[in-house]
C-alpha cells in the first residue's frame, strides 16, 4: 500500500484526536489554529482514507482481566483459527505473525470459568493448534485506552493496571447501549446515541460523563500506518530484570515508535508493539533505543503479517 500525501496539519489532527476522539471540530480548530471548515474537510478526507474513532470500555475498570494469547499452529490452519478467534465477542484483536504459524489474540475475561473455557478446554482440543501460552497483562504502560493497533502518532496514555482498587463499575442497560453504539462510531452525535439507547439526550450525556470521569470509557484512533509509509509492525518480547521492569516499560511508553507496551506474565515479562518504516528502521530502533535500556536480558521480534481483527472492543 502506497503512502499518501498527508501534511503537518493532517498529522496534528490525528494527534489531537488521539488526545480526545470526541473533541468537537470547533475546539480542534481553535487548538490547531485553523478554521472549523478546514478541520471538517480534513477530517472527512482522513475518514475516506480509513480513519476510525472507536469508543470502548476500559477492561480493568469494569472488572475484566486482559490476556494475551500466543498460539502456534500448523501453516495450513493458522488463518482459519485466527478467523474463528476474531468472531468471538470477547476478543479485541487478532494478528498473524512469524511465517503464518503464530498468532496473537487479546482476550478480556471476567471470571476464571470464562478464561478456562477457552484456555483449558476449547483451544487445546482444536485441531492443528500446536501450543498455547496465555499471558496476563499485569500493567499497561502504553496503549491503555487503545487496542493493539495504533497510529504512528501515538500519544502515551496513563498506565493502566490489570485490576483496580475501586469497586468495578457495573454498566447498566444504557451504558451497554452506549458501548455498542460507540464501538461502531466513537464520534456518534448525542441525538444518535440517544436514539440507540432509548434515552433522552440529557440522560445520555450524564452517562457519558460518568463513564469517562470514572475511567470506564476510552477512545481509540485507528489510521493505517502503511498510508504514512510505515510498513513494518513488529511485536517485541522482552525479558527484563525485575528491578528494571517499570523503568523499561515507562521508557518504551515515551517512544513514538511504540503503540503498545505491557508487563505480562510468562518467560518474557514485557511485550510491546512497534511501528516502523523499514527493517532498517527496526534495526536502528533495537540498536539505539532497546540496546541502551537497563536490565534487558533477551529479546524476540515477530513481524506482523496480517491483522485479522483490530479495533473491535470486547463489550461487557
TrEMBL record:
Domain (HTH asnC-type): residue spans on this chain: 6-50, 171-231
Keyword annotations from UniProtKB, A to Z: DNA-binding, Transcription, Transcription regulation
TM stretches of this protein: none
Gene3D superfamilies: 3.30.70.920, Winged helix-like DNA-binding domain superfamily/Winged helix DNA-binding domain (1.10.10.10)
Top-level taxon: Bacteria
Any coiled-coil regions, as ranges: none
Pfam families the record matches: AsnC_trans_reg, HTH_24, HTH_AsnC-type
The name this protein goes by in its record: Lrp/AsnC family transcriptional regulator
Amino acid at each position: 500500500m502506497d503512502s499518501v500525501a498527508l501534511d503537518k496539519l493532517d498529522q496534528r489532527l490525528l494527534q489531537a484526536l488521539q488526545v480526545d476522539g470526541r473533541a468537537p471540530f470547533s475546539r480542534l480548530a481553535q487548538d490547531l489554529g485553523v478554521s472549523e471548515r478546514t478541520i471538517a474537510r480534513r477530517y472527512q478526507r482522513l475518514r475516506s482514507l480509513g480513519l476510525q474513532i472507536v469508543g470502548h470500555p476500559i477492561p480493568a475498570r469494569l472488572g475484566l482481566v486482559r490476556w494475551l494469547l500466543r498460539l502456534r499452529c500448523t501453516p495450513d490452519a493458522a488463518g482459519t483459527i485466527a478467523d474463528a478467534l476474531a468472531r468471538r465477542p470477547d476478543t479485541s484483536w487478532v494478528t498473524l505473525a512469524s511465517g503464518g504459524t503464530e498468532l496473537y489474540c487479546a482476550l478480556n475475561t471476567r471470571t476464571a470459568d470464562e478464561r478456562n473455557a477457552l484456555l483449558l478446554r476449547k483451544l487445546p482440543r482444536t485441531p492443528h493448534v500446536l501450543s498455547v501460552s496465555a499471558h496476563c497483562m499485569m500493567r499497561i504502560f502504553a496503549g491503555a485506552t487503545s487496542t493493539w493497533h495504533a497510529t504512528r502518532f501515538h500519544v502515551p496514555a496513563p498506565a493502566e493496571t490489570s485490576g483496580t482498587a475501586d469497586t468495578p463499575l457495573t454498566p447498566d442497560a444504557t451504558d451497554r447501549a452506549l458501548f455498542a453504539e460507540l464501538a461502531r462510531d466513537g464520534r456518534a452525535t448525542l441525538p444518535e446515541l440517544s436514539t440507540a439507547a432509548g434515552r433522552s439526550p440529557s440522560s445520555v450525556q450524564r452517562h457519558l460523563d460518568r463513564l469517562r470521569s470514572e475511567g470506564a470509557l476510552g477512545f481509540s484512533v485507528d489510521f493505517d500506518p502503511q498510508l504514512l509509509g510505515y510498513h513494518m509492525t513488529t511485536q517485541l518480547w522482552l525479558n527484563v530484570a525485575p528491578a528494571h521492569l517499570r523503568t523499561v516499560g515507562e521508557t518504551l511508553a515515551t517512544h513514538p515508535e511504540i503503540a503498545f507496551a505491557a508487563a505480562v506474565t510468562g518467560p518474557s515479562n514485557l511485550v510491546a508493539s512497534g511501528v516502523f518504516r523499514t527493517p532498517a528502521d527496526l534495526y536502528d530502533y533495537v540498536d539505539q533505543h532497546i540496546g541502551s535500556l537497563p536490565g534487558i536480558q533477551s529479546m524476540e521480534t515477530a513481524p506482523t503479517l496480517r491483522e485479522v481483527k483490530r479495533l473491535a472492543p470486547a463489550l461487557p
